[in-house]
């Protein structure tokens, strides 16, 4: 039974946007498959790992009969990728086997019934809905997602807190040692809603969202969230848990503020990081009159030191940090300058962007 | 008013026997020691009914002259010392001169002996003490029959024949282990149980102890000039649920001494689980003047003049031998003597890597090799030159990498991959190395924590303090031990009657599961609250910490991470066992693998 004939990319592009979440080795064999539904001139692909589900719907000149099937996502993707860009691809389904033909190439793949494929139900009820540009959402993700915990037993830290409140969208992530916060205005007036997105969903959104002003529609309802952008609909479960109160953690009145050019500070830290002990990567920031010295040493007694001239005239201050936490923030904000707010060697440091209350990064010191 | 009387001799001896002659095995011990003291080269023991019916010890030692036979049976009659000075330097097993008297008081005892220079042997029966001529080729035969025949109350305390025999057997083993230079034989009810030719220590040990012990044993030989410790200590993989495999000899005398046991136990502390007992066979030698053996009726405990020095010496000697990395699982081979470690074996010709390094030789050497193959294996003539040329031509960087990869500087080799998220497989010169990833990482962390905590540990302050519920007993411990915990990097404070806040953690453990970790630390601290004990317990706490922070099973590691772990293991002392005493890695040599496929048979 002839299913469709079209260009390689008309199949590969939607397949690539859903196949990313397919688990390589799953105990449920059908979950390594992608669901393909061909209905008239509409081609729908859907993949899920039970926690997230991504669906794309595209339309085009397809021909052939209607059918639904599931087939190994990775194999199909590898085959299509290996074909020439310009290839015309023909799919036929006979006796549970999907045949992919292109030029002189021919591949016959096993399928599993579409009816057996697990699907997530869309959330019921209205929930909270809003629209934001893909660009904005993606930028906020980039500014905070690196601070998420990984495999922490406080499972709610392995995700990203999303808050909508009136006309503002906020995101927060923390691993218990540092916290990143970013906010942006949205055109809405919403009751305060907080959800925690799982790490995998965050990564998938960061990967798939575009850098343009195209719209992203977000629905938060019950224990689910839905993200619609372009041809893609991503449904994700939410993490059920109490995220720490980030506002209490962000210090308000640190007496000392130092302004840095981001790039030179980043380079200096990257160099000093080379000689940190690889297990906890501690660097010491020593503030003296008009001067910042960044020093590190490792277990082999090797030492590194960098000096930066700064506008600081207080008492000498010596404070240690995990350099990874500093590099992370400097790598993920794009502003020319940053401001560093300090109190003493035992208190957190606050890093902000001059004249902008929308970004905050808090990092705890390390006693070295 | 009761009258005070001097007791008759027999009763005195019977009372003394209560201390010395507890059961057949204690009789055997005395007789064996007398035979050893007599300078025997060969000793034969025959037991009947677990030694209760009869114990017969025949030796080929110096013997006892006719005039002294009766004296030997007297209390406080000994040929071994004459003065206090002698006692302080005593080098013989016996010296009190009371064993034979005590034994003769509670069992039918006869001695037959041919002293050197006498024309024939004499025999004395303890009941009439009249020497009579007898036939014997050499040495002395002591026969002890019907133990406790005249003291039925004691007889009741004897256990079954099998149990009494087992005790005798153990006694025999102890002497046999201490004196491998003496030929020894033990038979029971006519059946020979042990027949031991004179050999050196390792062979005697192999004959008497389990193969497993020998297989897992590390040789020890430490000499301070004043003290010398030698023998074998089993790696924790061969630990026991009881103390039955612990042999400690001081100047050839088996002892079960608290100080020594403690020193050895300490040496195992880092690598052996609390409930397990180490297995060892150790010989401590020192000037007899440095040790008082006259403190225990059965001389099983001793007192050292410089107890601290002995403790230190034993502890260090044992821990050094256990710590030397690089010889897991196969420590010693009874056939080839101690310390032949597989990792340093010469490359053998069946090994592909070995062939590759030959091919990296210059062409002249390669031709010579080809010639060797041709003459040595005529049957392979048609085949090998061709394959040699093709591989030889492909003397590529790959071959060179493989060759460098089998260098000595990577005894654990290089990672091939991961098995079910639990084991790392690596290739080294000898074949396949299997590493228990969690156990190995735990071990490394532990040692690292130990060195780090010796200084001031780096401490990560928490942005979101960990707050969790604990019991009231734990809370009490937490408050008591706040200083100790702070020293380790945990700043804690109560957040309520049953809630604890943790504000800092050691930077090395920044990503560990804090509540579990702290709860477990509190549990351990609770058992040992006094602050001094806590310092002693520090390593156990570290072990707990390391276990929590180590990579869990099922973490996928990259090859680079695996190789880093292997290198870390090589650098880490005692990396061969995890903190619970399980081995962290093992080797499957090419020969072992070949055997799976019945190659070369
Ligand atoms: N097997 C033996 N060969 C030679 N002499 C022996 C033997 N057994 C005992 N003797 C002699 O009998 C003495 C008494 O033995 P014993 O009562 O065991 O006392 P001790 O061994 O403490 O001297 C010994 O000192 C020794 O001279
Ligand atoms: Mg004696």
UniProtKB/TrEMBL annotation, chain A:
Keywords: Cytoplasm, DNA replication, DNA-binding, DNA-directed DNA polymerase, Nucleotidyltransferase, Transferase
Species of origin: Azoarcus taiwanensis
Boundaries of every DNA polymerase III beta sliding clamp C-terminal domain copy: 248-367
Localization: Cytoplasm
Membership in a protein family: Belongs to the beta sliding clamp family.
GO biological process, one term: DNA strand elongation involved in DNA replication
CC annotations in GO: cytoplasm; DNA polymerase III complex
MF terms in GO: 3'-5' exonuclease activity; DNA binding; DNA-directed DNA polymerase activity
Identification of the protein by name: Beta sliding clamp
Pfam families in the record: DNA_pol3_beta (PF00712), DNA_pol3_beta_2 (PF02767), DNA_pol3_beta_3 (PF02768)
UniProtKB/TrEMBL annotation, chain B:
Top-level taxonomic group: Bacteria
InterPro entries: DNA_mismatch_repair_CS (IPR014762), DNA_mismatch_repair_MutL (IPR020667), DNA_mismatch_S5_2-like (IPR013507), HATPase_C_sf (IPR036890), MutL/Mlh/PMS (IPR002099), MutL/Mlh/Pms-like (IPR038973), MutL_C (IPR014790), MutL_C_dimsub (IPR042120)
Keywords of this entry: DNA damage, DNA repair, Endonuclease, Hydrolase, Nuclease
Domain DNA mismatch repair protein S5: 205-323
GO CC entries: mismatch repair complex
Pfam families in UniProt: DNA_mis_repair, HATPase_c_3, MutL_C
CDD domains tied to this protein: HATPase_MutL-MLH-PMS-like (cd16926), MutL_Trans_MutL (cd03482)
Annotated SUPFAM superfamilies: ATPase domain of HSP90 chaperone/DNA topoisomerase II/histidine kinase, DNA mismatch repair protein MutL, Ribosomal protein S5 domain 2-like
SMART domains per UniProt: DNA_mis_repair, MutL_C
Classification via PROSITE patterns: DNA_MISMATCH_REPAIR_1
Residue ranges occupied by any MutL C-terminal dimerisation domain in the UniProt entry: 415-557
Gene3D superfamilies in the record: 3.30.230.10, Histidine kinase-like ATPase, C-terminal domain (3.30.565.10), MutL, C-terminal domain, dimerisation subdomain (3.30.1540.20), MutL, C-terminal domain, regulatory subdomain (3.30.1370.100)
GO biological process: one example: mismatch repair
GO molecular function: ATP binding; ATP hydrolysis activity; ATP-dependent DNA damage sensor activity; endonuclease activity; mismatched DNA binding
Family: Belongs to the DNA mismatch repair MutL/HexB family.
PANTHER family documented for this protein: DNA MISMATCH REPAIR PROTEIN MLH, PMS, MUTL, DNA MISMATCH REPAIR PROTEIN MLH1
NCBIfam families listed in its UniProt record: mutl
Protein purpose: This protein is involved in the repair of mismatches in DNA. It is required for dam-dependent methyl-directed DNA mismatch repair. May act as a 'molecular matchmaker', a protein that promotes the formation of a stable complex between two or more DNA-binding proteins in an ATP-dependent manner without itself being part of a final effector complex.
Protein's UniProt name: DNA mismatch repair protein MutL
Organism: Azoarcus taiwanensis
């Amino acid at each position: 039974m002839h299913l469709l004939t079209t260009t390689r990319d008309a199949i590969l592009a939607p397949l690539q946007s859903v196949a990313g979440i397919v688990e390589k080795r799953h105990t449920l064999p059908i979950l390594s498959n992608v669901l393909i539904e061909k209905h008239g001139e509409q081609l729908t692909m859907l993949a899920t790992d039970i926690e997230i589900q991504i669906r794309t719907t595209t339309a085009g000149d397809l021909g052939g009969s209607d059918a639904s099937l599931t087939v190994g996502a990775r194999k199909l993707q590898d085959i299509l990728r290996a074909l020439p860009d310009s290839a015309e691809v023909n799919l036929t389904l006979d006796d549970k086997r999907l045949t992919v033909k292109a030029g002189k190439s021919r591949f016959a793949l096993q399928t599993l019934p579409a009816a057996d494929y697990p699907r997530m139900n869309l959330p019921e009820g209205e929930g909270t809905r809003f629209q934001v540009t893909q660009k904005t959402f993606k930028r906020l993700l980039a500014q905070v997602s690196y601070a998420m915990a990984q495999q922490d037993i406080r499972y709610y830290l392995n995700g990203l807190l999303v808050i909508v409140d009136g006309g503002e969208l906020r995101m927060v992530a923390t691993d218990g040692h540092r916290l990143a916060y970013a906010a942006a205005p949205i055109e809405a007036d919403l009751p305060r809603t907080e959800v925690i997105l799982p790490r995998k969903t965050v990564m998938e959104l960061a990967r798939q969202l575009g850098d343009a002003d195209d719209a992203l529609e977000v629905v938060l309802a019950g224990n689910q969230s839905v993200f619609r952008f372009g041809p893609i609909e991503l449904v994700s479960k939410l993490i059920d848990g109490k995220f720490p109160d980030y506002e209490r953690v962000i210090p308000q009145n640190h007496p000392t503020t130092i302004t840095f050019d981001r790039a030179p500070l980043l380079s200096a830290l990257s160099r000093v990081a080379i000689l940190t002990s690889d297990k906890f990567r501690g660097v010491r920031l020593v503030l003296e009159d008009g001067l910042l010295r960044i020093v590190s040493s490792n277990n082999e007694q090797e030492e590194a030191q960098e000096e930066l001239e700064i506008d600081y005239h207080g008492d000498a201050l010596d404070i240690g940090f995990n350099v990874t936490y500093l590099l992370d923030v400097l790598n993920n904000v794009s502003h020319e300058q940053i401001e560093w707010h300090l109190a003493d060697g035992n208190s957190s440091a606050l890093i902000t962007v001059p004249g902008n209350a929308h970004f905050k990064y808090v990092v705890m010191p390390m006693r070295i | 008013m009761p009258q005070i009387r001097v007791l008759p001799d027999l009763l005195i001896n019977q009372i003394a026997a209560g201390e010395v002659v507890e059961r057949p095995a204690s009789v055997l011990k005395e007789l064996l020691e007398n035979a050893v003291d007599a300078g025997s080269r060969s000793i034969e023991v025959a037991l009947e009914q677990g030694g209760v019916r009869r114990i017969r010890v025949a030796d080929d030692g110096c013997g006892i002259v006719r005039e002294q036979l009766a004296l030997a049976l007297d209390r406080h009659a000994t040929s071994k010392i004459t003065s206090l000075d002698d006692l302080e330097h005593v080098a013989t097993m016996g010296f009190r001169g009371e064993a034979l008297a005590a034994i003769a008081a509670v069992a039918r005892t006869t001695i037959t002996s041919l002293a050197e220079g006498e024309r024939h042997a004499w025999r004395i029966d303890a009941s009439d003490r009249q020497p009579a001529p007898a036939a014997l080729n050499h040495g002395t035969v002591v026969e002890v029959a019907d133990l406790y025949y005249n003291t039925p109350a004691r007889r009741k305390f004897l256990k079954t024949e099998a149990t009494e025999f087992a005790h005798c057997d153990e006694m025999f083993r102890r002497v046999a282990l201490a004196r491998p230079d003496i030929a020894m034989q033990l038979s029971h009810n006519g059946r020979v149980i042990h027949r031991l030719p004179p050999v050196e220590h390792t062979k005697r040990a192999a004959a008497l102890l389990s193969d497993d012990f020998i297989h897992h044993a590390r040789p020890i030989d430490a000499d301070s000039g004043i003290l010398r410790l030698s023998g074998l200590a089993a790696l924790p993989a061969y630990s026991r649920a009881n103390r039955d495999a612990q042999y400690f000899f001081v100047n050839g005398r088996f002892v079960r001494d608290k100080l020594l046991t403690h020193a050895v136990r300490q040496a195992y502390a880092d690598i052996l689980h609390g409930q397990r007992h180490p297995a060892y066979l150790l010989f401590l030698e020192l000037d007899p003047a440095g040790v008082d053996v006259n403190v225990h009726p059965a001389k099983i405990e001793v007192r050292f003049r410089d107890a601290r020095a002995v403790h230190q010496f034993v502890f260090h000697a044992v821990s050094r031998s256990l710590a030397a990395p690089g010889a897991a699982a196969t420590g010693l081979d009874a056939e080839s003597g101690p310390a032949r470690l597989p990792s340093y074996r010469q490359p053998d010709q069946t090994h592909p890597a070995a062939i590759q390094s030959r091919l990296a030789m210059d062409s002249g050497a390669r031709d010579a090799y080809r010639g060797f193959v041709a003459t040595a294996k005529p049957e392979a003539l048609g085949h090998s030159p061709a394959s040699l040329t093709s591989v030889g031509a492909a003397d590529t960087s790959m071959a060179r990498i493989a060759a460098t990869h089998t260098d000595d500087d990577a005894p654990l080799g290089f990672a091939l991959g991961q098995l079910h998220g639990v084991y790392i497989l690596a290739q080294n010169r000898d074949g396949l190395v299997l590493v228990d990833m969690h156990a190995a990482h735990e071990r490394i962390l532990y040692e690292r924590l130990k060195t780090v905590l010796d200084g001031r540990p780096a401490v990560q302050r928490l942005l979101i303090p960990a707050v969790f519920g604990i019991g009231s007993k734990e809370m009490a411990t937490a408050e008591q031990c706040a200083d100790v915990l702070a020293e380790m990097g945990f700043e804690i404070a109560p957040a309520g009657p049953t809630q604890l806040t943790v504000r800092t953690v050691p930077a090395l453990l920044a990503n560990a599961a804090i509540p579990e970790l702290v709860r477990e630390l509190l549990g351990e601290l609770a058992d040992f609250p006094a602050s001094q004990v806590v310092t002693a317990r520090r390593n156990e706490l570290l072990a707990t910490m390391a276990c929590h922070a180590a990579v869990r099973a099922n973490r996928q590691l990259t090859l680079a991470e695996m190789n880093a772990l292997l290198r870390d293991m090589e650098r880490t002392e005692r990396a061969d066992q995890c903190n619970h005493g399980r081995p962290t890695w093992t080797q499957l040599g090419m020969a072992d693998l070949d055997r799976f496929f019945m190659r070369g048979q």
